[in-house]
Amino acid sequence: MSPVLRNSSTSVAKRPDLEAGQYKEPQGASFWVLLAVSMPRMAVNMAWAAQWAALGPYLSTMLPNYAVQLTSVIGPVVGIIFGPVIGVLSDRSTSRFGRRRPILFVMGVLSIICWILMGYTNELGEALGDVGSGQAGEKTDRTWTAILTLVFYLWMDITVTCSQTPTMLMVADFAGDRQTLGAALGLGWATMGAIIPAVYIQIWGAAYLTLHWFMGLLCVVMFVSVTVAVIFGRETPLEKTDNVTSTCHGV
């Protein structure tokens, strides 16, 4: 073995802070608090997976293929527009409930309302005059159902994007020096959110065929995860200052 390899294998990396007796424990929330505040990542990722698993095939029964593909552009465009705006607004929020929790709570509630209505698009469309189921040889006109689905699709993109931003910022706020741990826990929840729709489809078939139940499951996951995050993620409110500039200037 060469001297270089021998020295590198036996040497110990020097830590000036340890040698000087100045080592400090990493600052940040505990494992369990980080696990709680990162939980909405599961609901957010499940919502994005639901667009491909349920809404895409559902729209394909009412719209031509090119129109269905165009709807996939909505998500990135909404993210580019609303993501930075929500980030700045939450950074400057002086609410007594904290900077992230109010936005996360409101957007979570709006997402749940959207999904409840989305589960009944077929019934709402029929009430407005739609006929048929799209099967071959059957007279079909599902214009209203398609319009309502697109409206709720856009609504969902906005609220889920606006939920995603404060969720990620909240994890970063609480993690402190434990950013790697916070990111890992968030990724774990996000992975679980992607797995749930796949398991649902494997057991019960195409999600749009049981849209009520699928959207109901999505509502339950969002409600539970947001509730856990806002209860255990106790933020310190931002103090009001006199030199606050406009939000547009911050963007």
Can you describe what's shown?
The chain is an all-alpha fold and 251 residues long. It has a single domain (37-135, 143-237), classed as Growth Hormone, Chain: A (Up-down Bundle), CATH 1.20.1250. It has 12 helices and no strands. The protein has helices at residues 3-10, 16-19, 31-37, 40-60, 65-71, 74-92, 101-118, 121-127, 143-175, 179-204, 211-232, 247-250. Helix 4 (40-60) runs parallel beside helix 10 (179-204), helix 4 (40-60) packs antiparallel against helix 11 and helix 7 (101-118) packs antiparallel against helix 11 (211-232). The protein is elongated. The model is unreliable at 1-13 and 246-251 (pLDDT under 50). It is found in: Membrane. The chain crosses the membrane at residues 31-54, 66-90, 102-122, 142-160, 181-205, 211-232.
Descriptive tags:
251 residues; mainly alpha; Growth Hormone, Chain: A; elongated; disordered N terminus; disordered C terminus
| Cα radius of gyration in angstroms | 23 Å
Task: Report the CATH C-level class.
Answer: Mainly Alpha
Helix content: over 70%
CATH superfamily caption: MFS general substrate transporter like domains
CATH architecture, by name, is Up-down Bundle
Q: What's the number of helices?
A: 12
Which structural class is indicated by helix and strand composition? mainly alpha
How many domains? The number is 1
The biggest beta sheet reads: none
Strand count: 0
Overall spatial form: elongated
CATH topology: Growth Hormone, Chain: A
